[in-house]
Specification:
This protein is an all-alpha fold. 65% of the residues lie in helices and 0% in strands.
Length: 114
C-alpha cells in the first residue's frame, strides 16, 4: 500500500505544479521562453496543449503553428531537436508579436474615432 500511496502523492504533486504553470501562462507571467526550458512537470505534455495555455492560442491556432512546422499533435518538447524547438519558439513569438501590434492598432483607432 505504501508504493501506491507514494505514486498517488507524486501524481498529485505533478498535477498541482502543472496547474500552477498553466495558470501563470494564462496570466501572462510566464512567457514563451517556457518552451525552451520546461519544468519537469510539463516535459510529457504535448506541445499543442502547452500552446493552448497561452491567451489567444486556441486549438486551431496551436494546430496551425504545429502543422506549419511539421510537428504532430502528440509531440512533446522533449522529443524535439534544438533546431525545431527554436523554430517553434520563433514562430510563436512572431504570432504573439503580431497580435500585440493588432491590439495597439485597434486601441489607437478607437481613440481616434472618439
Amino acid at each position: 500500500m505504501d508504493q501506491r500511496s507514494e505514486a498517488l502523492r507524486k501524481a498529485n504533486e505533478v498535477r498541482s505544479a502543472r496547474a500552477a504553470v498553466k495558470r501563470q501562462c494564462a496570466e501572462g507571467t510566464l512567457g514563451i521562453e517556457l518552451l525552451a526550458g520546461l519544468p519537469d512537470c510539463c516535459r510529457k505534455v504535448p506541445i499543442m496543449e502547452i500552446l493552448t495555455w497561452y491567451p489567444r492560442f486556441g486549438p486551431a491556432r496551436a494546430q496551425d503553428v504545429c502543422g506549419r512546422l511539421g510537428i504532430s499533435a502528440g509531440t512533446t518538447m522533449e522529443a524535439l531537436s534544438a533546431a525545431r524547438r527554436d523554430r517553434l519558439i520563433g514562430r510563436v513569438r512572431d504570432m504573439m508579436g503580431n497580435e500585440r501590434r493588432r491590439e495597439r492598432r485597434t486601441t489607437t483607432q478607437e481613440v481616434v474615432a472618439c
